[in-house]
Amino acid sequence: MFLARIISLKLLKQQQHCIESHSRCFLSNLSFSLPNNTINQKRLISTTKDENDSNEWLWAYLRDRKSFSDLNEEQRRRVIEIEIQTLREAGDRVPDEIPEERWNELLNLPTVESRKTVYGYLFLRELHRKRRAAVVASNDIRRAESSKRRATLLAEGKQPTNYPGYSTIFRHLGRQNEKYMREQLLLAPARLGEMLVIDCGFEKDHVREYYLSSLADQLQYLFADISQYHSPSFIYLCNVLPHGRLQAEFDRRASLENMCFEKTSSSYLDLFPPEKLIYLSPDSNNEMTSFDHDAVYIVGGIADRTGKKPLTFAKAKREGLKHQRFPIDRYVKFGGGSGKSLTLDQVYNILMTLKHTGSWMEAFKYIPDRKVVERYTDTKEIHMEKFGRKIGLNA
Question: Does 255 have pLDDT greater than 70?
Answer without folding.
Answer: no
